[in-house]
Design brief:
The chain is α/β, with parallel strands linked by helices. The chain is built from 26 helices and ten strands.
Length: 599
């Protein structure tokens, strides 16, 4: 007799032998015992998890001749059970819907369904890969499936239930099969090794179960192949070479190099793996899985049931999780996911894999904007990073007085959580010290706040400005209040950030905008409003002149008017976060929306 592979030799013949689908088998057994047998079933789920097997067991239970009625567990020894198990039963018809998917085949099935079974209790049709049936064929089957003869039962197995029309799904009982758990696959592989008198290492079985990816059939096929390639014992090394995976120790070594930003070590390790014949796509997939497990270990702990891996790899991912913060691990996983997706259609796969690994190393040098705005200095090489401080020491202002301590909301949130972003990396004797981060360069000022060389040339002749500070604040408050009352928010934002001065009867405002922008913003209506308000504040007719070339006012705000808490722009300029953004990035306020006035 020819050899029979493990997946067929040890195929379950009873509901109790099915692994990982207790929610399905329990429901079917109860339905048979209660006499609630449906005329149509849909079994959907991952490949190799028992859909067709359960359909055959259900067919044996319905036609088992050990009793006058259907039984919850088939006997397995009667003629009907033996014929169904062998696949040559006259009354149980298995159809490959991938090849018999047209309307003509469905018409033949519909005609044959009218005749009673030749011997058994039910005539059962098992349609495998049912999602391959065309829409026209499904429509032809619709009426028969809705009201079939009492002796007919349909069973549809599919991996893509969403491709089956809703009209078909609503006429059947739908059972969604689950992926088999890692521990259940390992236990089954160990049991089969005992039956076959094959010794196997626990790590080797764990590798086979992980490669199965939730599919029992895939794991059994790999185990069959591993037994054939071994010399009487399944070792972890032989299995690793067979399925072409890198050891978890290599993955841990890669992530340790990433934590130290050691690009040379990363390139050397990658070269060694590829020289040994490692597939770049397969390695990237492994690293994606490893990073996912590291995130789970970081969030839920190394003993979490969410980690479907061996105990040795649990320890490795737990050690890697201690090297990074949750944000860093999420960033690295995103980089590797993008790298793995790109490797599928790139020609130079090695270069793109190396680029993805180097991106992870460079990502370690990034500073979060929270840390930058909070004024926390980056950690020095070989030292612990000091924790974010909620109340930094007050800085001296230009006048010599101590400014109010600035508390960043990001720093306060980080201190509330009690965990800094970058966690210290425990040093090992073999680990080289992490290089010091590159000093942060001064902020680049762009836009209207750029140096004078980047601005438009100023007019050749400008009036001499003689400030009259006693009247400027009064005029400025009156003018801005009048402009805001008129609903000219853009003009108010521009003038509020300008440099104000009074020269005789002339009000001169220098703004950080180009002449073209001034012409668009200062309309005739706005000019009339400003002139009228300035004349009223000065007690004499006033003229308005708005000139380009002013520097943005980031550290001052106009006085609050009576009856209000200052203009919206003034209140925005007094916000600590806004002032910090202006100081660090040379930002400027263009538009201020006061939602209080809109209510």
């Amino acid at each position: 007799m020819s050899y029979q592979v493990l997946a067929r030799k040890y195929r379950p013949q009873k509901f109790s032998e099915v692994i990982g689908q207790e929610h399905v088998t329990r429901t079917l057994k109860n339905a048979i015992e209660q006499g609630r047998i449906a005329h149509g079933y849909i079994f959907s789920g991952h490949r190799g998890i028992g859909k067709t097997t359960v359909a055959r067991i259900l067919a044996m239970a319905l036609n088992c001749r050990s009793s006058e009625q259907p039984v919850s567990e088939p006997c397995g020894v009667c003629d009907s059970c033996i014929e169904i198990r062998a696949g040559n039963s006259v009354d149980v018809i298995e159809i490959d819907a991938a090849t018999n998917r047209g309307i003509d085949e469905i018409r033949e099935l519909r005609e044959a369904a009218r005749y009673r079974p030749a011997r058994d209790r039910f005539k059962i049709y098992i349609l495998d890969e049912a999602h391959q049936i065309t829409d026209a064929a499904f429509n032809a089957l619709l009426k028969t499936l809705e009201e079939p003869p009492g002796h007919v039962v349909f069973m549809l197995a599919t991996t893509q239930p969403e491709d089956i029309p809703q009209t078909i799904r609503s006429r059947c009982q739908h059972f969604s099969f689950r992926a088999v758990k890692f521990d259940q696959i390992v236990d089954q592989l160990k049991d089969l090794c005992g039956r076959e008198n094959i010794s196997a290492e626990d790590e080797a079985l764990a590798l086979l179960a992980e490669a199965g990816d939730g599919s029992m059939r895939d794991a059994l096929s790999l185990q069959d192949q591993a037994i054939a390639s071994s010399e009487g014992k399944l070792s972890a090394e032989s299995v690793r070479q067979l399925i072409g995976v890198a050891s978890s120790g290599i993955l841990e070594e890669i992530m340790q190099s990433v934590s130290r930003s050691a690009s040379d070590e990363i390139l050397r390790t990658t070269d060694r793996l590829l020289s040994e014949g490692q597939n770049p796509v397969h390695f990237a997939k492994q690293l994606v899985r490893f990073l996912r497990n590291a995130i789970v270990a970081k969030v839920a702990g190394g003993d979490s049931f969410l980690l479907q891996i061996s105990s040795d790899e649990r320890n490795r991912v737990a050690r890697v999780a201690e090297l990074f913060s949750e944000e860093d691990l999420a960033r690295h996983l995103q980089i590797m996911l993008r790298t793995h997706a790109e490797l599928g259609y790139r020609q130079e796969q090695r270069f793109h894999l190396e680029l993805g690994l180097l991106k992870m190393a460079h990502a370690q040098r990034l500073l979060p904007i929270e840390q930058l705005l909070s004024g926390v200095e980056p950690a020095k090489a070989g030292t612990q990073e000091r924790k974010l401080s909620i109340a930094p020491e007050p800085k001296k202002t230009e006048t010599g007085s101590a400014a109010r301590p600035f508390v960043s909301p990001f720093a306060a949130d980080t201190a509330r959580k009690g965990t800094p972003r970058m966690e210290a990396v425990p040093e090992s004797p073999s680990a080289s010290p992490r290089p010091a981060p590159t000093p942060i360069s001064p902020p680049i000022v762009m836009g209207s706040a750029a140096p004078a060389v980047a601005r438009e040339p100023e007019p050749a002749r400008q009036p001499e400005v003689k400030p009259a500070s006693a009247n400027v604040d009064v005029v400025r408050t009156a003018v801005l209040n009048a402009v805001e009352s008129a609903g000219l928010s853009m003009l108010s934002s521009m003038l509020g950030a300008g440099e104000w001065a009074i020269n005789g009867n002339e009000l001169i405002i220098k703004v950080a905008a180009s002449a073209a922008l001034i012409d668009m913003s200062v309309s005739n209506e706005g000019r009339k409003v400003v002139t009228a308000a300035a004349s009223g504040a000065l007690g004499r007719p006033a003229k308005l002149q708005v000139l380009p070339g002013g520097a943005p006012q980031t550290g001052t705000s106009r006085p609050a008017s009576s009856g209000s808490n200052g203009s919206p722009r003034g209140r925005a300029e007094q916000e600590p976060v806004v002032q910090r953004m202006m100081e660090k990035f040379g930002a400027e306020i263009r538009t201020v929306i006061d939602y209080k006035q809109k209510k």
